[in-house]
Every structure is written in structure tokens, then in C-alpha cells.
Amino acid sequence: QLQLVESGGGLVQPGGSLILSCTASVFALNYYAIGWFRQAPGKQREFVAAISWSGAGTGYADSLKGRFTISRDNAKSMGYLQMNSLKPEDTAVYYCAAGGGWSNWSSYNYGGQGTQVTVSS
Q1: For all residues of the chain together, what is the average pLDDT?
Q2: Is 44 helix (H, G, I), strand (E, B) or coil?
Q3: Is 88 exposed, middle or buried (0-12, 13-18, 19+ CB in 10 A)?
Q4: I need a labelling partner for 102 at 20 to 30 A (CA). Which of 26, 52, 59, 69 fits?
Q5: How far apart are CA 70 and CA 98, in angstroms?
Q6: What does the radius of gyration of the chain's CA atoms come to, in whole angstroms?
Q7: Can you tell me the distance from the alpha carbon of 20 to that of 82, in angstroms, rounded to the nearest whole number?
Q8: Does pLDDT of 2 surpass 80?
Q9: In whole angstroms, how far apart are CA 92 and each of 65, 109, 112, 116?
Q10: How far is residue 90's CA from residue 57's CA, in Å, rounded to a whole number?
């Protein structure tokens, strides 16, 4: 059951930045790890980044380290994904998830409907 809501996607030029947000509709995210995933057309969903419930631990897909930053604000029950130096190959639907799956989408308890990110000139 989808109980997370992503926002912040859109069209951006190569080299630009976007911040995606994730919130839960019926529960607080505070006690869950948050993960971000993406799925490009014709490709499998892939891990982007994850953050522990406290924010002390983070993990990234190797190919995205240095460009993407995951964060959270437990006071607002929000998760974020800052994306810099965007490339056309970053074009995908981006999903957030909450639970204990870390880099494994199917192991998360909750997921969202996704937000489209398109990188194009």
C-alpha cells in the first residue's frame, strides 16, 4: 500500500539541481530508515541512496556519490534527496521508501507513487 508522497520532480537542464521531498500520509517517518530509488524507462528500479532513522548513517549508489545527498528532518517527518550536476541519464521516476530495506526496494515496508525527473535541454 502506497503511503508515502514524493514531490519536487520536474524538468531541469543538464547541470541543474533539484531537491526531492518525501513525506508520509498516515504515519511519522521518524522511526524508519528512508530510501530513494529510481526507475528509467525500460530499466529496472535501482537504489539511489538511504539514510538511517537518526540520520547518522547514509549510503549511496557508487555511481551517484558526490552528486546526490540524502537527508531528513525528523521534526518535520520529511526526507530529502538533493540532486546536483544532473545529467540526461538521471532521467527517471524517483521513489522514496520507508522501513528497513536499505538498498533493497522489496524489503521496505512503505513506498510512494514516484515523481518524474527529466533532465533535458
Answers
A1: 94
A2: coil
A3: exposed
A4: 26
A5: 13
A6: 13
A7: 6
A8: no
A9: 17, 22, 14, 6
A10: 24
Of 86, 76, 84, 81, which Cα lies nearest the Cα of 24?
76
Three cell numbers written together for 60: 549511496
Q: Which of 54, 52, 81, 55 shows the shortest CA–CA distance to 68?
A: 81
- Residue pointed to by grid coordinates 555511481: 63
pLDDT in tens, 73-120: 999 999 999 999 999 999 999 999 999 889 999 999 999 999 999 999
**Of 16, 11, 29, which Cα lies nearest the Cα of 82?**
16
Cα separation, 109 vs 3, in Å, equals: 10
β-sheet bridge partners, residue 96: 36
Q: What is the pLDDT of residues 81-91, one digit of tens each?
A: 999 999 999 99
Query: Which triple of cell numbers denotes residue 70?
Result: 540524502
